[in-house]
């Protein structure tokens, strides 16, 4: 949840570390700090609030030196004050630590260290790390770190430097993400890839329980017992420019507009109209394995969970597998009954969400087969899976997930079609239609984006409302949930997603002239089932209208009944039922975005949130 960045090399470390922190600020922005070593002297600057406060502090009280580390915080233990801002020091101020995650046993450790004479100055769990390393320090920083690690429990990552063993940064991964970048004479440590992309695309993803010693001479890697390991670097194809705003006011807006290209990249080379097949050769399952699955369980959190619910509809209907969906954060508290031949699918943009990765480990221990759908090459989820399907969305920086979501939906569609081919549940003609619809999809997405001005206008009439409802049926229901989540997290407006048919069972009581109700009412004109669902949604719209609710609807262009029943209407050019969610969610993302802009909210870094949730 926090961002860590470390640099060692010939250049001035301060601007490099500040630049790294800037690109990691989406991970946490409660407070920030930097520690620099110069000629065995350690200097620290810290402050509460966003990184710009630290920039201002550094302008007034500059520091320079040979190497160092920085941190941008999402508070878990201790309020977001200057004292609690990282990096944290030991008693003598010779060792500093920047940390992400939680030291679960920090209280007993702290009590013991206080008994032994250590002086604590903060409310954080992190300070324990600095004092533990101090306790074990005997000239070698990595040896002290290895000894300290034997006493620490939890899921975390940290970097540490010492003025008494200079010219190295020690980096530790115990569950939370940490990567190392290396080029001739320089070393980088960071919580995420975009931070090091301006310098190198050769990345070492630290594995669980690994300790890296980063110096100008290169990287030395150890397991937690101190045994050397050979670092295996991976080449990252993301372009550094992709992680910049590129003329857009916010990363989120840029990422919304990138969706047609992202979807094209996701499906590129993964199906063929010539052979009428999906081919997922990059996924390490044989056709026999794919065929053996009769059931599927999909686990995820947040927006990825909404993709999972949509995936259930796709796989159930198209491939006729029995599918259950779980919140990864809840799964470990259940005692599930898993039928044989079950495929587990985990979905996580970051690949590092603690709840998801924990559930994944639990499933792996049962021996079930795991497919993970993720956006981040080499991330934790990929190490706990039998097979990986990358979404290829490119870096997603905005805290609110957009292009990661739609590319997850596209991946699930491919999985559903692939399974359906192998299980023989679709005719050749149906498969051809399903694949042709996929080819046409990016263009239909572009049309929605070209008409985005209309949604911006609409937000003028809507942004002041205190509550919203999002209603839909079938596969569109998870999109209603996603629309509500986007509005909540970006604009801090209370919003709920609900199955439209459930309204009469209670929530109808909420409807009055102050309540905007957003309906997802698009349908596939070639599918009688889809049309029937639409008719029912239209009835629900009339029910809300007759109770004075404000109707916002997303539906097929030129659908006169719907247009006449709506106060605000967003048209789209329809496609099949299983791809409609990818179109429908775009106006909801834009609506949330424009309402949030009008309310003066922080678009890319909404309050109390972080992009990568690496704590439970
Ligand atoms: C979405 O806008 C959120 N920021 C959040 O719900 C996110 O989808 C969730 O935390 C899961 O993240 P993941 O996909 O990286 O696992």
Describe, in plain words, how this protein is organized in 3D.
The protein has 616 residues and is of the alpha/beta class. The chain contains 19 helices and 27 strands. Strands 3-2-4-1-10-9-11-15 form an eight-stranded antiparallel β-sheet, covered by helices on one side. Strands 5-6-7-8-12-13-14 form a seven-stranded antiparallel β-sheet. A five-stranded parallel β-sheet has the order 19-18-20-21-22, with helices on both faces. Helix 14 packs parallel to helix 19. The chain starts with a strand and ends in an 18-residue tail after the last helix. The mean pLDDT is 93. The structure holds 2-deoxy-2-amino glucitol-6-phosphate (AGP).
What would you report as the Rg, rounded to the nearest angstrom? 25 Å
Structural class: alpha/beta
Quaternary structure state of the chains depicted: single chain
Q: Helical proportion?
A: 25-40%
What is the arithmetic mean of pLDDT?
A: 93
What descriptive keywords fit this protein?
616 residues, alpha/beta, eight-stranded antiparallel beta sheet, seven-stranded antiparallel beta sheet, 19 helices, binds 2-deoxy-2-amino glucitol-6-phosphate
Summarize the structure.
The chain has 616 residues and is an alpha/beta fold.
Please give the structural blueprint.
Elements: E1 3-8, H1 13-24, E2 31-38, E3 41-48, H2 51-60, E4 67-73, E5 88-89, E6 95-103, H3 106-115, H4 126-136, H5 141-149, E7 154-162, E8 169-174, E9 179-183, E10 186-190, E11 202-205, E12 210-215, E13 218-223, E14 228-229, E15 234-235, H6 251-257, H7 259-267, E16 271-272, E17 277-278, H8 287-292, E18 295-300, H9 302-319, E19 322-327, H10 328-331, E20 342-348, H11 354-366, E21 369-374, H12 380-383, E22 387-390, H13 403-423, H14 428-450, H15 452-462, E23 467-472, H16 477-491, E24 494-499, E25 516-520, H17 528-545, E26 550-556, H18 560-565, E27 568-572, H19 580-598
Parallel strand pairs: 18-19, 18-20, 20-21, 21-22, 23-24, 23-25, 25-26, 26-27
Antiparallel strand pairs: 1-4, 1-10, 2-3, 2-4, 5-6, 6-7, 7-8, 8-12, 9-10, 9-11, 11-15, 12-13, 13-14, 16-17
Helix pairs in contact: 3-4, 4-5, 7-13, 7-14, 9-13, 9-16, 14-19, 15-19, 16-19
The site of 2-deoxy-2-amino glucitol-6-phosphate has 14 residues, from helix 9.
């Amino acid at each position: 949840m926090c961002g860590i960045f470390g640099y060692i090399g010939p250049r001035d470390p301060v601007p490099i570390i500040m630049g790294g922190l800037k690109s990691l600020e989406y991970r946490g922005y409660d407070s920030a700090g930097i520690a620099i070593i110069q000629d065995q002297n350690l200097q620290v600057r810290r402050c509460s609030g966003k990184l710009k406060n630290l920039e201002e502090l550094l302008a007034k009280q500059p520091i320079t030196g040979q190497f160092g580390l920085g941190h941008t915080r999402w508070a878990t233990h201790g309020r977001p004050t200057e004292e609690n801002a990282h990096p944290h020091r030991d008693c003598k101020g010779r060792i500093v630590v920047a940390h992400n995650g939680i030291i679960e046993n920090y209280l007993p450790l702290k009590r013991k260290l206080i008994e032994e004479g250590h002086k604590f100055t903060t409310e954080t769990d992190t300070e324990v790390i600095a004092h533990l390393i101090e306790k074990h320090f005997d000239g070698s920083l990595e040896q002290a770190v290895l000894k300290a690690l034997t006493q620490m429990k939890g899921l975390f990552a940290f970097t540490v430097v010492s003025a008494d063993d200079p010219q190295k940064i020690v980096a530790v991964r115990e569950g939370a993400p940490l990567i190392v970048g290396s080029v001739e004479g320089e070393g980088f440590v960071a919580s995420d890839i975009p931070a090091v992309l301006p310098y190198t695309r050769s990345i070492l993803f630290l594995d669980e329980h690994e300790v890296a010693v980063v110096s100008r001479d290169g990287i030395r890697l150890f397991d937690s017992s101190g045994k050397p390991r050979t670092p295996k670097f991976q080449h990252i194809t993301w372009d550094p420019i992709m992680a910049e705003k590129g003329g857009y006011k916010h990363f989120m807006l840029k990422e919304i507009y990138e969706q047609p290209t992202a979807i094209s990249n996701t499906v590129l080379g993964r199906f063929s109209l010539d052979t009428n097949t999906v081919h997922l050769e990059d996924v390490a399952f044989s056709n026999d394995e794919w065929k053996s699955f009769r059931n599927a369980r999909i686990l995820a959190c947040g927006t990825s969970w909404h993709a999972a619910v949509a995936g259930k509809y796709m796989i159930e209907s198209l491939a006729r597998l029995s599918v259950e969906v779980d919140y990864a954060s809840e799964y470990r508290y259940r005692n599930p009954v898993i039928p044989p031949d079950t495929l587990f699918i985990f979905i996580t943009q970051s690949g590092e969400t603690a709840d998801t990765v924990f559930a994944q480990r639990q499933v792996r221990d049962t021996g079930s087969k795991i497919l993970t759908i993720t956006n981040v090459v080499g991330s934790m989820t990929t190490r706990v899976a039998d097979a990986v399907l990358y979404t290829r969305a490119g870096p997603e920086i905005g805290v609110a997930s957009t292009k990661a979501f739609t590319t997850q939906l596209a991946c699930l569609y491919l999985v559903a079609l692939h399974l359906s081919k192998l299980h023989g549940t679709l005719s050749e003609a149906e498969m051809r239609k399903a694949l042709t619809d996929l080819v046409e999809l990016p263009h239909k997405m572009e049309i929605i984006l070209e008409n985005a001005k209309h949604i911006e206008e609409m937000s003028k009439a809507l942004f002041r409302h205190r509550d919203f409802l999002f209603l839909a049926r079938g596969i569109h229901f998870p999109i209603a949930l996603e629309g509500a989540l986007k509005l909540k997290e970006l604009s801090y407006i209370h919003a709920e997603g609900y199955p439209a048919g459930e309204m009469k069972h209670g929530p109808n009581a909420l409807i009055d002239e102050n309540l905007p109700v957003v309906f997802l009412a698009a349908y596939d004109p070639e599918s009688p089932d889809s049309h029937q669902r639409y008719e029912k949604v239209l009835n629900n719209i009339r029910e809300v209208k007759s109770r004075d609710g404000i109707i916002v609807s997303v539906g097929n262009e030129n659908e006169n009944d719907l247009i006449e029943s709506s106060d605000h209407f967003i048209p789209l050019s329809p496609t099949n039922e299983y791809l409609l969610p990818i179109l429908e969610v775009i106006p909801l993302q834009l609506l949330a975005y424009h309402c949030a802009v009008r309310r003066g909210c922080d678009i890319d870094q909404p309050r109390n949130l972080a992009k990568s949730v690496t704590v439970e």
